[in-house]
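Technical note accompanying the year-one report. For the benefit of new consortium partners, we illustrate the data format agreed upon in the data management plan: each record pairs a sequence with a structure-token string. No post-processing was applied to the example shown here.
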Amino acid sequence: MPLLIGAGREVVCVLLAGFFLSHTAGAMAKAKRVDPRKPIAVDVALGHNVRFWRLARGLSQTHLATRLGITFQQVQKYEAGDNRVSMGRLVKTAAILRVPIAALFEGTETDGPLLALISDSRSFRLARAFAAIKNNKARVSLVNMVENIAAAARRRPKKRRRGRHRRVG
């Protein structure tokens, strides 16, 4: 069972990723099963970003493949978006390319709050500390407090800079 973090569009996309609707002329729409192993748009964008950063670092597909412990053909498939990249290999690729994992997701639909969460080491510290709390009431209180802080931050207007004002006229 997959671990779902967050709510909203990301979770809905994950839950619906295995299905799509096909509409045929004169027939009712019906659900079809899609191969869950087949790459999706995020995989293609991720592959393009891997290629971009590999080239920016001056690495050949063979050199990246050797460091990842795979064949250069596998790197070609990742870059073309033909094959999905496992999370472990993604982390290793980011480390070899000396970029944050978030950089490999730029320009994708997942480039949003969930990605911001996993890109920040403080999120992991918070999750680790939360997991260590055994008292359920304390956990609920902590979640409520964090949600209240986040809601207040969204409501707070951005501070205006003070400085010179342009004169019109």
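Partners are asked to follow this layout when depositing records. The longest helix spans residues 136-155.
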